[in-house]
Design goal:
Layout lengths: L11 H6 L5 E4 L2 E4 L27 H9 L5 H38 L13 H37 L8 H9 L13 H20 L5 H4 L7 H19 L6 H11 L3 H12 L6 H10 L14 H5 L4 H31 L3 H4 L1 H37 L4 H8 L11 H25 L12 H19 L6 H11 L15
Antiparallel strand pairs: 1-2
Helix pairs in contact: 3-4, 3-13, 4-5, 5-18, 6-17, 6-18, 8-16, 8-17, 13-15, 15-16
Keywords: Membrane, Transmembrane, Transmembrane helix
Pfam families: TMEM135_C_rich
Family: Belongs to the TMEM135 family.
């Protein structure tokens, strides 16, 4: 999720001593950075030694070193917690509100269609707007509470146990304690998909730590495979798209709605494909024929058909169907990615936007066009690959559907390399949830039915790992994520074991 600007650069302090505040140590000897070249002055609150004479204004690097060495006061700690809460709220409300706004605009556009072509709405526009406002407020409170809780617990533990003595574990504990704030999005709302996705992100960070570790480096080396992200996407696609056709109930409701929109097929068509793949008699061929007639296509379906191509695209050949579907899918994908790129541009590059607006907006529009092409190619290739497979083997069954949807993930190669791992992990989280739901419904994992709010437990464990890596293993983060965490939480008071980057 999208990064704001980083805090002011620490300059030479990061390079010289990792940006440390207050005291550092070598072995058991404690040496305050303020006393390396000094004598005389006021008392140092950090080590009870003597502060140096304030540096002259002609030495900015020394002046920044002194300022960076002053520990937080009580008022600064409170201000840090309040600021983190406000920034967390603004990010949560901004992202959720932006997506809700585009969803409402898309809804209004659908309402402007003729009554004959319009689908019946489940609730009114007014109810949709109220629901969007509630969701925006909930997600704002969730991220605001998470940020405020983490900073507060971090500062309380540091005050009671000392920054240095608690440096290796307090952020882990603070992240775990802040995790249950996800309940603010709705006490009865399950967030299994989100929790699994955050767990995937935590696993990536943990694997990066393992790669640079002498003990676990060889074990984690396969994780550095160049095209591992595309393989994960193919693996996820096989489960997700098979579930989209065969068992939609295993997918989260919001994701199922997303697939139904961008899959571009009427539910009656999906039901027909499901029946022929499952080897059960057709129950809705007449409904499929009526649907095509409403679209201006007169078709008579054979109840003894072996492959579902005529169900999927009527009288249209497979090749022309793939081209026309790609164009339609691209139009559907554009409204999805506009907020994904434009909203971060307003937050992340808010300062540069005034200096070079055409460059920033140009990159955002280019990213929107590229990502829209990925999504449209992904959706259209799902039908292309399955049609090819069905025609080669002259049959359709569940294994064929799973195999045919596997190469769909190759469309991820269209995306930017930096975004591929994000998308593949996002889809992997949903594939894992769908897989375990299918296994549970089949009776292979009956115990999972008795677990209550496991999503909160998974989320808390994940945030504990992520926040620990943020404070102790900062180099495993990509700079854009590190920047947004620094902007929200404030750069944590570092320790000798906490490598700091220079702010970019």
């Amino acid at each position: 999720m999208p990064p704001p600007q980083p805090p002011p650069s620490l300059g030479d302090v990061s390079a010289v001593d990792g940006g440390q505040r207050g005291c550092s140590s070598a072995g058991e000897d404690r040496v305050c950075l303020l006393h390396e070249n000094s004598g005389g002055g006021t008392s140092c609150a950090h080590c009870s030694r003597t502060d140096p004479t304030p540096p002259s204004s002609s030495c900015p690097s020394t002046y920044s070193l002194v300022l960076d060495s002053i520990p937080f006061t009580d008022s600064e700690k409170i201000r840090r917690a309040v600021t983190a809460s406000v920034k967390g709220f603004s990010i949560g409300a901004g992202l959720k509100g932006g997506l809700a706004l585009f969803s409402i605009l898309a809804r209004l556009r659908r309402r402007s269609l003729s009554a004959s072509a319009r689908k019946p709405e489940l609730f009114s526009n007014r109810e949709a707007i109220i629901l969007a406002l509630k969701e925006t407020l909930r997600y704002g409170l969730f991220l605001g509470t998470f940020a405020g809780t983490f900073v507060s617990v971090d500062e309380i533990i540091a005050a009671l146990g000392g920054h240095r003595r608690t440096a290796n574990w307090r952020h882990l504990l603070a992240g775990a304690i802040a995790g249950p704030s996800i309940l603010l999005t709705g006490l009865n709302t399950q967030h299994t998909s989100l929790a699994i996705y955050i767990l995937m992100r935590a696993a990536v960070l943990a694997s990066r730590c393992g790669i640079k570790s002498k003990r676990f480096g060889k074990i984690c080396r396969p994780l550095t495979w160049k095209h591992g992200d595309i393989f994960l996407m193919c693996l996820s696609s096989s489960q997700i798209l098979s579930a989209y056709i065969l068992k939609q109930d295993s997918l989260p409701p919001s994701y199922k709605s997303f697939l139904n929109t961008h899959g571009g097929k009427n539910p009656t068509i999906l039901q027909g494909v499901k029946e022929i793949a499952s080897g059960i008699p057709f129950t809705n061929l007449e409904a499929i024929e009526r649907y095509y007639k409403s679209m201006g296509v007169d078709i008579n379906l054979d109840p003894n058909m072996k492959i579902p191509c005529s169900i999927i695209h009527g009288n249209q050949p497979c090749t022309s169907h793939s081209v026309s579907f790609l164009i339609q899918a691209y139009k559907r994908a554009l409204p999805v990615y506009l907020p994904v790129y434009l909203i971060p541009a307003l937050i992340v590059h808010r300062q540069d936007l005034l200096k070079r607006p055409y460059t920033i907006l140009g990159k955002s529009l280019l990213g929107t066009a590229r990502s829209s092409l990925f999504l449209s190619a992904y959706c259209s290739s799902a039908w292309v690959w399955t049609c090819i497979l069905f025609r080669i083997f002259k049959k359709c069954n569940i294994p064929m559907v799973a195999i045919g949807t596997f190469p769909t993930g190759l469309a991820l190669a269209i995306e930017k390399k930096s975004r591929r791992i994000e998308i593949s992990l996002y889809c992997l989280a949903r594939a894992i949830e769908s897989f375990f739901t299918c296994m549970t419904d089949a009776g292979y994992l009956p115990k999972l039915r008795r677990l209550n709010r496991v999503d909160v437990l998974i989320f808390s464990i994940s945030t504990a790992i992520i926040m620990h890596c943020y404070a102790v293993e900062r180099e495993v983060f990509r700079s854009k994520y590190l920047n947004v965490l620094d902007w929200v939480f404030g750069v944590p008071p570092p320790t000798p074991e906490t490598p700091h980057r220079k702010s970019s």
